[in-house]
């Protein structure tokens, strides 16, 4: 029996700073970038928008590649975070489509950046990373609000340390695939 290999992508919605809103509310910059998504964003609307973007970029090939196996496993409007599941062979296609998306996929959606934080072969590992990032974000926001200089936690959240880490579990090399193992 053949097991279907999948990849899970942890994605954050990052909002560009709005100078008028930040100065009026006196919100720390880190909190303003990682603000909650308050729109009526649903998993179905998110999948529909992603499929439309993939179809726009890659045509029929892209639409067919993600047709039956793209789903939202977790969506948190409070943390602006979601987890996508897709076929292992096509996760890079999905990642590139997310890179080109620039608005929350609802009517009159705000501009945002879809930032892929981590890719993994298991949902458990992605969930652990999501929880750890949420904790770090809370600690960094508290530190910034209390007036401390930018700490290493906020540097990690903003993405200067471990952004290029690609955590893929159970990866087979090309040699293993040829051997049939």
TrEMBL record:
Alphabetical list of Gene3D superfamilies matching this protein: Ribonuclease P, Pop5 subunit
Class of this enzyme: hydrolase
MF-aspect GO terms: ribonuclease P activity; ribonuclease P RNA binding
A GO CC term attached to the entry: ribonuclease MRP complex
Database matches in SUPFAM superfamilies: Rnp2-like
Compartment list: Nucleus
Principal subcellular localization: nucleus
Presence of keyword tRNA processing: yes
Entry annotated with the keyword Repeat: no
Superkingdom of this protein's organism: Eukaryota
Assigned keywords, A-Z: Hydrolase, Nucleus, tRNA processing
Any GO BP: tRNA 5'-leader removal
EC number(s) on file: 3.1.26.5
InterPro entries: Pop5/Rpp14/Rnp2-like, Rnp2-like_sf
Reactions catalysed, as given in the entry: Endonucleolytic cleavage of RNA, removing 5'-extranucleotides from tRNA precursor
PANTHER family linked to this entry: RIBONUCLEASE P PROTEIN SUBUNIT P14, RIBONUCLEASE P_MRP PROTEIN SUBUNIT POP5
Family under the similarity heading: Belongs to the eukaryotic/archaeal RNase P protein component 2 family.
Function: Component of ribonuclease P, a protein complex that generates mature tRNA molecules by cleaving their 5'-ends. Also a component of RNase MRP, which cleaves pre-rRNA sequences.
This protein's name: Ribonuclease P/MRP protein subunit POP5
Gene source species: Hypocrea atroviridis (strain ATCC 20476 / IMI 206040) (Trichoderma atroviride)
